[in-house]
């Protein structure tokens, strides 16, 4: 997932945990409409009753998720998502007192508030770093860690499709090929083509 951070990933994990709870409840009520293919099979085979097994499996899956993600990384850090609605005097902001003071200043800074809606989260905190470097550094440090293996998986996929048996001598140019393939910057083909002369037919 591009541009992910701990808040986006934690939201998705929380949503999946809630889905598991809902699906477990439905399975206990012998309703399988959340799994369309299974539901169709069971409609054609009314004698088969697997709702208890499905319910048990979903409960175990929910327990495993609770083990893997026991703590919510968002706790105490919601000020990063919206520094203008979190009150350090009322909410747990997990900050030392000098940074709490900076957060109070940020929350009342009308210039930064105007930038808040126009910039993505990372860009906003980079803008804040010009005035409040210590607070912004704390926010950026929490936003930076890789929360998914998206980039690694993209790289492996591109190597697998690029370096085939037919193209096994790409050692020298594989790095350049990967750089171009993984770059988020789209090529300006119109500019490249305009600088090349069409080949004259013989």
From TrEMBL:
Positions of the HAT C-terminal dimerisation domain: 112-171
Listed GO MF terms: protein dimerization activity
InterPro entries attached to this UniProt entry: HATC_C_dom (IPR008906), RNaseH-like_sf (IPR012337)
Domain of life per record: Eukaryota
Stretch forming the signal peptide: none
A Pfam family that the UniProt record links to this protein: Dimer_Tnp_hAT
Record-given protein name: HAT C-terminal dimerisation domain-containing protein
């Amino acid at each position: 997932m591009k541009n992910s951070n701990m808040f986006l990933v934690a939201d998705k994990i929380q949503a999946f945990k809630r889905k598991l709870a809902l699906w477990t409840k439905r399975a206990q009520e012998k309703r399988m409409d959340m799994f369309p293919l299974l539901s169709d099979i069971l409609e054609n085979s009314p004698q088969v009753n697997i709702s208890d097994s499905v319910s048990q499996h979903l409960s175990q899956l929910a327990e495993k998720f609770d083990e893997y993600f026991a703590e919510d990384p968002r706790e105490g850090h919601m000020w990063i998502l919206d520094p203008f609605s979190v009150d350090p005097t009322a909410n747990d902001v997990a900050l030392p007192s000098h940074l709490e003071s900076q957060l109070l200043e940020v929350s009342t800074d009308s210039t930064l508030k105007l930038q808040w809606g126009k910039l993505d989260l990372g860009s906003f905190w980079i803008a804040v770093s010009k005035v409040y470097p210590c607070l912004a550094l704390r926010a950026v440090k929490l936003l930076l860690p890789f929360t998914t293996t998206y980039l690694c998986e993209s790289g492996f996929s591109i190597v697998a499709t690029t370096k085939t048996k037919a193209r096994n001598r790409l050692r020298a140019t594989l790095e350049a090929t990967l750089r171009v393939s993984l770059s988020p910057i789209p090529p300006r083909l119109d500019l490249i083509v305009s600088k090349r002369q069409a080949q004259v037919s013989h």
